[in-house]
Amino acid sequence: MTQSVVDDVARRACGSEALLSVSGVDVRLGGRTILDQVGFEVRPGEFTGLIGSNGAGKTTLLRVILGLQRPTRGSVRLTRTGRGRSGIGYVPQKVLLEPDVPLRARDVVGLGMDGHRFGIGLPSRRRRLLVDEMLAAVDASRFANARVGELSGGEQQRILIAHALVSRPDLLLLDEPLANLDLGSAHEVVGLLARIAREQQIAILLSAHEMNPLLPVMDRIVYLAGGRAASGTTEEVITTPVLSRLYGHRVDVIHVHGRVLVVVGDSETAGDSVGDIGREINSDVDVVG
Amino acid sequence: MLEHIFQPGFFASDEVQTALMVGGVVAVVSAIVGVFTVLRGQSFAGHSLADIGTTGGSGAFLVNVSPLFGFLLFTLTGAGAMELIGIRRARGRDLATGIVLGVSLGISALFLYLDTTIDNTSGAVMTVLFGSIFTISPSTLRPVVIFAVISLILMALLYRPLLLTGLDPDIAAARGVPVRLVGLGFLAALAIAVGLSAIAIGSILSTALLIGPAATAVRLTRRPGVAMLLASGLGLAAVWLGVLLSYDSYDWPPAHHGWPVSFLVVALVFVAFLATEVGSGIRRGMRERNRTSASVGSDLPEAVRS
């Protein structure tokens, strides 16, 4: 049943040449299955949301794509577009730096360009201009010279996005960038990312547990539940039959006031979903499990 | 006046010359490695290596080897072992770390006891634990410089990867940085810095020279390169001033026998740190006072009106 969900949605995904193709990825850690036959594709310049509740396997999947976690089975293939671009840019949820660490925001962006190289590295005009350009692209010029450790979470995130962009990646991976932001800042970041994806022709794969802020910009969605994935456009994936098959039991997709709510009762207490809806609407989260 | 500061014979004395040179080299290496130690949050690793180095330094006296090699052998081996056990990552290793450090200091106690009773080298305790920079033989200078250069080359080579892994190890790994190897390289540089520092101001105080100037520098600047230059300057000043004051202190009370260099160096490092802390505290306080007085001023009419 899992297989069929993955297949029929994934088959439709193969339109143009894929930039990233993940196929049949299994990850088992200590006897537990974290990812089960996950497969999807990301095409150049596309905005893809990786949606799932906590523990669905989002972070593990990102780590597999980054090459930080070896899959038990399956493969990840990245086709580079060349033109002096690096493969994948990665934006972690947050960095843990003490406020007095001597690194300015612009130093962090510069490290995105050549931090992986050995040696001290000499300043150059070209380097400085590129760093300034990236800082401007994420609206961070204002705090370019501030210590990273003293910036707010949202400001640090912009710097990390600039850090990832400066190497000109084909694909930008972001781990839960909206998790600690209020609704207004979340919309701002999503708008910023959509603009960057368009202007710089960068594909974006962004993990989130709440899909609603992403609905206006997402070209495709990869929905993870219990380690299994369904992918396609939101219209294809966020439907009662597809998600019910993915979860393995009845799931309701409800459209309320322009928002999409996925109501998940667990298999034994599926009849209780009415109670869940009530909780759902108050709690402003779109996956209830 | 100048004669009171640089007393006759200060620069002519061989001991002073060796002390100034060894101390200067050690101060620079400690400061530069120290900035990365602060940046990576590894000062505990530095302290652990100092404890382990104590065993090597005290053992060296037993087998009639220069304590420098005892310190370095043990700190470098300790660094390798730390990487193998992964002390830094796993919090569960806390107990193991505590036990290993306790044992190494215990063995040092035994070695130092044997040094003083059997070998009758009564200066060993003082030399190993608190250093005696004026008794360093001139022949030690060459190995000190060689190890210092090795450590500085390592730091120059690993400069950018260390900053990147310090920012986030996952980002670095995703960019193809061999994170473990870079970490091991840094631990080796740290081990050398601690070992060299132990020669100058003793194993127990060696972390003061490692962390003190670096911690002061990172409060004064937000640029990593500048922080390293600044820390080197501060370290150099503390060590050289310490040597000078110690030389002058032969006239000082209570014993008229000279004050120990290590105490003076650590005191100077601490004073510099305290001064920047107080300085930044005052600056912050003034900024806040300005802000509150401004807001009180604007609030007042409204409060009166209502």
Automatic annotation (TrEMBL), chain A:
ABC transporter domain: residues covered: 20-251
User: Which InterPro entries has this protein been placed in?
Assistant: AAA+_ATPase (IPR003593), ABC_transporter-like_ATP-bd (IPR003439), Metal_Ion_Import_ABC (IPR050153), P-loop_NTPase (IPR027417)
- Gene3D superfamilies of this UniProt entry? P-loop containing nucleotide triphosphate hydrolases
Keyword field: ATP-binding, Nucleotide-binding, Transport
Q: Which GO terms describe its molecular function?
A: ATP binding; ATP hydrolysis activity
User: Looking at the Swiss-Prot or TrEMBL record, what is one Pfam family this protein matches?
Assistant: ABC_tran
PANTHER family, alphabetized? METAL TRANSPORT SYSTEM ATP-BINDING PROTEIN TM_0124-RELATED
Full protein name: ABC transporter ATP-binding protein
What is the organism of origin for this protein?
Answer: Microlunatus endophyticus
The lineage is: Bacteria, Bacillati, Actinomycetota, Actinomycetes, Propionibacteriales
From TrEMBL, chain B:
The membrane topology noted for this protein in its Swiss-Prot or TrEMBL record is: Multi-pass membrane protein
List GO BP terms, alphabetically: response to zinc ion; transmembrane transport
Query: PANTHER family of this UniProt entry?
Result: ABC-TRANSPORTER METAL-BINDING PROTEIN, IRON TRANSPORT SYSTEM MEMBRANE PROTEIN HI_0360-RELATED
Q: Which SUPFAM superfamilies does the record cross-reference, listed alphabetically?
A: ABC transporter involved in vitamin B12 uptake, BtuC
Organism of origin is Microlunatus endophyticus
Where in the cell does this protein reside? Answer: Cell membrane; Membrane
Asked if the keyword Hydrolase belongs to this entry, the reply reads: no
Q: What is this protein called?
A: Zinc/manganese transport system permease protein
The UniProt keywords, alphabetically, are: Membrane, Transmembrane, Transmembrane helix, Transport
UniProt entry tagged with the keyword Metal-binding? no
